[in-house]
Amino acid sequence: MREFLLEKLATEAVRQSLEGFKLSWGFPDPIYIDCRAALGDPATLYAAAACVFNELDTEKVERIAGIAYGGLSLSTATSLLSLAKGNPTGALGIRKRPKKHGIGLSIEGGYMAWDNICIIDDVCTTGQSLLTAIDTAKDAGLQVVQVIVLVDRQLGGLYEIERLLPDAKVSAIFTKDELVNYRIQ
Fold it and tell me: Could you give the percent of the chain with pLDDT greater than 70?
């Protein structure tokens, strides 16, 4: 599954441009990684969910929380896979900002305060989206015991998460370098 996912992400999610792409942190980079482009394919989404599930600490994690938008389909697919594997783990969605309508939720899905969660996102650059999601989860009384991203852009984001959550398991399925090196082989 991992090799299949590596091929799919390297060929369908990685874009290159000499002019560079403006990233969330404001500076250009010649490499842009858009996992959503690849995860629209059910086989790729299944492979990603399988890789995330293999990283998941099923002894501790009670809910899988995907960050809108990159982590939502991934958290749902991983939750469905956990059911199929006999260890059902519920899915949550964490918004960057509370909804402006309805009851104004920042976190969607059923949970109890003090549930242990794993936060999932597709790509980590500076870690700002993850840090915001961690704060949102903590404000709701949730315990972040694990963080998994599909791709670490290797710009210090996961290091910041590790510093903030020294007792949590923090990991990436792939690094930007792995995807780029696969492309040039």
Answer: 92
